[in-house]
Amino acid sequence: MSEKIKVAVTGAGGRMGREVVKMVLEDASLELVAAVDRSGAGQDAGELAGLKPCGIIAASDLDLALSENKADVLVDFTVPSVVYANTVTAIRHGVRPVVGATGFTPQQIEELDGLCREANIGGLIAPNFSIGAILMMQFAAKAAEYLPHVEIIETHGDQKLDAPSGTAIKTAELIAQGREKIKQGNPDEEEILPGARGGEYDGFRIHSLRLPGVFAQQEVVFGGYGQSLKIRHDSYERAGYMPGVNIGIKKVMDYTGMVYGFEHLM
Amino acid sequence: MSEKIKVAVTGAGGRMGREVVKMVLEDASLELVAAVDRSGAGQDAGELAGLKPCGIIAASDLDLALSENKADVLVDFTVPSVVYANTVTAIRHGVRPVVGATGFTPQQIEELDGLCREANIGGLIAPNFSIGAILMMQFAAKAAEYLPHVEIIETHGDQKLDAPSGTAIKTAELIAQGREKIKQGNPDEEEILPGARGGEYDGFRIHSLRLPGVFAQQEVVFGGYGQSLKIRHDSYERAGYMPGVNIGIKKVMDYTGMVYGFEHLM
Amino acid sequence: MSEKIKVAVTGAGGRMGREVVKMVLEDASLELVAAVDRSGAGQDAGELAGLKPCGIIAASDLDLALSENKADVLVDFTVPSVVYANTVTAIRHGVRPVVGATGFTPQQIEELDGLCREANIGGLIAPNFSIGAILMMQFAAKAAEYLPHVEIIETHGDQKLDAPSGTAIKTAELIAQGREKIKQGNPDEEEILPGARGGEYDGFRIHSLRLPGVFAQQEVVFGGYGQSLKIRHDSYERAGYMPGVNIGIKKVMDYTGMVYGFEHLM
Amino acid sequence: MSEKIKVAVTGAGGRMGREVVKMVLEDASLELVAAVDRSGAGQDAGELAGLKPCGIIAASDLDLALSENKADVLVDFTVPSVVYANTVTAIRHGVRPVVGATGFTPQQIEELDGLCREANIGGLIAPNFSIGAILMMQFAAKAAEYLPHVEIIETHGDQKLDAPSGTAIKTAELIAQGREKIKQGNPDEEEILPGARGGEYDGFRIHSLRLPGVFAQQEVVFGGYGQSLKIRHDSYERAGYMPGVNIGIKKVMDYTGMVYGFEHLM
Predict the structure, then answer these.
(1) Which of D167, D184, D197 to mutate to test the interface with C (most CBs of C within 10 A)?
(2) What InterPro entries does this protein's entry cite (chains A, B, C, D) (predicted)?
(3) How far lies A212's CA from each of A156, A163, B84, C102, in Å?
(4) Mean pLDDT, rounded, of chain D
(5) Which candidate, A153, A168, C135, D27, has a CA 20 to 30 Å from the CA of C108?
(6) In a shared domain, residues B162 and B186
(7) Where in the sequence is the domain holding A88, given as residue range(s)?
(8) pLDDT at position A145, please?
(9) A172 and A63 in one domain?
(10) ipTM score here?
(11) How many domains, in total, are found in chain A?
(12) What pLDDT was estimated at residue A189?
């Protein structure tokens, strides 16, 4: 990688954006060339990230920023309302989008794939950039082919609104694909406390714990004849996504079309 | 302990009774003096337990067996329908009952305590003889005084009928006694899958997993500011009760009255 | 599978052999046709396994037993001193060997592969028939490609002689193949208690715990930026091998040549 | 607690000091009255902590700061070289010291206890303010009285210099006090990889893992007849000490003399 990859970052003053800026500044093979942040416009992107100034002043408009600075990749972790438009803007500028978001429809992804192919560039949209979490999901799906008795336990901070978590549901979907369809447990089992047996998904159960001090944890437990297999992922902080984003930035340079899901790059 | 403690065993051919016979025969400070088993009557108690003959032939009637053999302690793990009568019979013979059972009413225990005191002997009734499980419950109760955010996860074999387990409910009762009364979780939280958040007990949650290959497991998880504390007990087999029964046999020699709960001997 | 697979078992009165007999008798698609056991010769194989009589009387000589009874598969979990000869005998009779053993040399396996191919039958030799343990090893090897910081913790019964366990060393070998070669930990780290940091294998560490009440457990822990991934296998009893042996018996019918390692059938 | 407790903080610009300032400012029953920080002198203590200004300007000298501002409690998490002098200074001003430090000698603690008693105030020195970690140690010590087969596994960040951790050694000391003296494991056991069985402490073993992404974790595992008991504490961040410091500030108001060890307040 003789030449540095030129990276632009949106939401550079937000929680994820600041981590992205930090990660880009710390990797000698990457170069920060533009930063966009509505409320932080005019400030130095390094300072927005809690570091010393880096010389890149945050702009307020992505289109303008990409016109004025030649970028190879745009990293975008902004909110659902603007992320689609940002992705289109990037592709129009020939800039490869690396996007962390969950709300895209299959139709939108197909459209963006078409735009990427026209522009002859790659793109990446991923709901999850955590390498460990993706491995956990892949392993769980594989194990379920052999050990169909399975339960999922996920733990998140106690102010989370929805249960189960998106990762737990995604894991359950992957497990269900290869698992022999059985309804686990005793057919006559009785819940003395309603809900004790968890939420049912396709014949197996998901349990959601909510405790202060926890960022994100998930354990998938398989039970077999005289044995159990457990696959557990603990995420301690938002920064755990950055190694995945870093790999995404580098891999997106090497293919054409829009990839949905970081697991397809592994 | 210069003299051996003389032990009688009921249900000597049953699953727990056989373990008791084995344990008594293996401890040089104990002596098996009588065994009772309706369907195994006439057979050697050692052979019923899968060992070589020990010279004690199983009788069919407890009253008769205790008349013919001087015993210090009766160990009884029989079924609810006969255990109360067996306990009374033992006390009437001046034999200290060590009983594994859950179904006694407070009134029955009080009556048995009176009978023990009249006979000037000790007695022990315990739903749980597992030292590790009792420590888990004691520790969980203590931790809840300092860390009120708690969830219980219990796992049992997949043919178990009731959820949560008796141990989980007992643990929850003990936790509730010293825990600050708070309703955990986000007040606006939403279960996408009904039951995902588990069964509620006094503001905290219990989750029941049912998997083949598991005998009995429980984990109590506490979440605090930047930390979590977990107390976990795994029981691999019925024989895990025997060290507790052994301690019970020895301790019941030293006090008067009926003790309910093995934890009071720890 | 319209016709039953005819199974012969050696060491039918030994610890593993009895489990094999039980498993064969319980599977309607398998038929026990011969049993060999030196010390149990003349007894019914069902009774040797602690079940009711099954009509197959244990023989003392494998060669004779296979001459008198047409078998499809021989399951052999006997001791290193006889297992090679047994395997050759089976192949000479056109009987597919399914062997649980660790001591074969690469040369022996190659020879047996040749014999199988000449006889146009399949064979299977596996040090480990536990599906969960094999999945654990495969997942650990895969994860190490992405998360090179890894430690292995294995726990076995407290009377085990060697540390680390064979499974831990096998896991370490598989991890080392795809893992970036780094020496983990602080180069200046100091052991206040010698051995605290465990045994080193190719730059990472293995820790062996020995505790009563445990059969076999292993956890592989990966640490990354803000996250950790754990893969854990708990084996509760010898019987945990049987689902793997059962699969082995069925799969060995469908290929030619000797397969070494159950993982190649998954 | 009708009146606020007046709190002074040393090292207010350091890693722990900033957390203390934050905690004090967020608790309505506490009032920050003074802050000391050599390199941050002249700056607002709230700003040093990354919050908005709170009106307390950091001073450079503790003696002067305590002369000018009436404080009830001094919280000191500074370095070994100054912490003893700071503690003496506080007591001389009639200010109760709450100190996080490990290096005090028994003689120093006795002297400080004498000074506290002369001044008729309380004081607290604690190597560990983590409530969860202290509960873990207390539970481990108690469990070891009943289950003498035990191993400790501790995990810290991969740049830590010493192994085992101070917490692991402290836990081992507490376990050793009540545990039956046995040397665990098979007397003939053999380490194929030197160090695999961990570091020995009084007949049991300690295992130290070092992985990136981990702050501080410890698990104490007990093995018994057919069961295991695990007590695990995971610390995610430095801020995990603050609930303990908060309790310390409030409890130190109610007694006289120097207490060494937060566990004595639980």
Answers:
(1) D197
(2) DapB_C, DapB_N, DapB_N_CS, DHDPR_bac, NAD(P)-bd_dom_sf
(3) 8, 15, 46, 48
(4) 94
(5) C135
(6) yes
(7) 5-126+239-265
(8) 95
(9) no
(10) 0.88
(11) 2
(12) 92
